[in-house]
Amino acid sequence: MAKSINRSARTGRFVTAAAVRRSPATTTTERVGRGTGNSRAVNRSASTGQFVTDAAARRNPGGTIQQQV
Fold first, then answer.
1. Contact predicate 7/13, CB 8 Å
2. Which pLDDT score, from 0 to 100, does residue 57 have?
3. Cα(22)–Cα(46) distance, rounded to whole angstroms?
4. In this structure, are residues 28 and 13 in contact, taking their beta carbons and an 8 Å threshold?
5. 20 to 30 A from 22, CA-CA: which of 8, 11, 16, 67?
6. How many whole angstroms separate alpha carbon 10 and alpha carbon 37?
7. Beta bridge mates, 60
């Protein structure tokens, strides 16, 4: 069964739900575990949750996160 985790886009570390409420623009929630493919890496904007290109992720490393989908 997949579960939701919260991660800081700046550090890549796991954070609490309280940290997400304090800093929604620099954190992201992702699904992990059974039921997720986790077969390829993608870049996602921490503030909008939208997928971004590799070039955009390099330009804004503190505002993007790489995850497996």
1. yes
2. 92
3. 14
4. no
5. 67
6. 24
7. none
Sign of torsion, CA 15 17 21 27?
positive
Q: What are phi and psi for residue 25, nearest 5 degrees? A: -75, -20
What is the C-alpha separation between 16 and 53, in angstroms, rounded?
27
pLDDT of res. 48: 80
14 secondary structure, DSSP code: B
Closest CA to 62 of 43, 41, 46: 46
pLDDT in tens, 8-58: 877 878 899 999 999 888 888 887 777 666 677 888 888 787 889 999 999
41 touches 67 (CB < 8 A) = yes
pTM, to two decimals: 0.56
3-class SS of residue 48: coil
